[in-house]
Design brief:
This protein is mainly beta. It has three helices and 16 strands. It is about 10% helix and about 50% strand. A hairpin with a 5-residue loop joins strand 3 and strand 4.
Length: about 325
């Protein structure tokens, strides 16, 4: 591929991946801020104070302190046309003095058709973006603190580019009903030769009654005037005896059982709704003792490059 063709194709693919954002954003590594996990996305893209599963590696690494001994999660979504997909895989586990997790976020544009300046077909190409993170969280009776170190890797045709980043988050549990959180995303990050702007998110989570969680997040990106407001709600219904309605503060711990007969016991169902910067979100979840499946729908916005509604599917195993 000649140099002009490479530049032309790179620009088009970058525009496609930039359209993944739920806000207008032209910053470096913008695709890495799409939002991970069906649970939080169904609740309006909130999670800085409420997140309680492995997707905390994205929303707030301090939330990893709410994990059990071991948790594995994966999410897939097809957000946009042009064959664009966004995926997430993470593994978290307890350490003697904290909690750790490794995560992988991936955005792809496959089978993109390339043409030269004479409109001659040059074949199909792909752009593959990776965000690999290593997170650690420390838990005290009231305060949880988490950090993430991450690497950006981008490849198109035979070319590749790299970068690095860091996040830091905190959660303060005032009591069993109210939590506050703050997350500094890309507090010091660079992608190729560009500095990735820091994004600050602050939020709160309220557990007014058994099984109900209400959330609200405010997001502000460095050098951007717009402030993004998000809100969400979740309601879990337990089926059976001694169920764990949620692993948030409103939950009730279930009795530990080890027999295979109980692996799929204690079924629970949950519904979620939210608003993400003016766009409606919704979803549902089904949870058993060690497995949870979630779905999230996100409506497109008129002012986005995103070309259609989004659908996220998530599965989590916890032990």
């Amino acid at each position: 591929m000649n140099k002009r063709m490479k530049i032309f194709t790179l620009v088009l693919l970058t525009l496609c991946l930039s359209g993944l954002l739920f806000a207008e954003n032209n910053s470096a590594a913008a695709w890495s801020r799409v939002g991970t996990g069906a649970k939080a996305m169904a609740m309006g893209g909130t999670g800085v104070a409420s997140i309680d599963n492995i997707s905390a590696t994205y929303w707030n690494p301090a939330g990893l302190a709410r994990l059990k001994t071991f948790e594995f999660g994966s999410m897939i979504t097809d957000i946009q046309n042009f064959g664009t997909t966004y995926n997430f895989v993470a593994l978290g586990f307890r350490l003697p003095n904290g909690y750790a997790a490794v995560s992988w976020n991936n955005a792809n544009v496959d089978d993109f058709q390339g043409y030269d300046e004479n409109n001659l077909f040059m074949g199909t190409f792909g752009n593959y973006e990776h965000n690999i993170g290593l997170s650690y969280a420390y838990d005290s009776p009231k305060i949880k603190i988490g950090v993430t170190a991450k690497a950006f890797i981008s490849s198109i045709d035979d070319d590749s580019e790299t970068g690095f980043g860091s996040d830091i988050g905190i959660i303060y549990d005032l009591n069993q009903y109210l939590s506050f959180g703050a997350m500094f995303r890309d507090i010091y990050s660079k992608y190729v030769d560009d500095t990735v702007p820091t994004q600050l998110t602050v939020g709160a989570a309220i557990h007014p009654v058994y099984g109900v969680t209400l959330t609200s997040d405010i997001k502000k990106e460095q050098h951007e005037e717009n402030i993004i407001y998000c809100a969400g709600a979740e309601y879990w219904v337990g089926i059976g005896e001694d169920v764990e309605v949620s692993s948030t503060l409103s939950g009730i711990a279930t009795e530990e059982k080890s027999s295979w007969d109980n692996v799929l016991s204690n079924a629970q169902g949950g519904v979620r709704i939210g608003v993400n910067d003016g766009a409606i979100t919704a979803g549902f979840g089904l949870r058993y003792k060690i497995i949870e499946a979630n779905y999230a729908y996100g409506a497109k916005k008129d002012d986005l490059l995103e070309s259609r509604d989004s659908h996220r599917f998530e599965i989590i195993f916890r032990f």
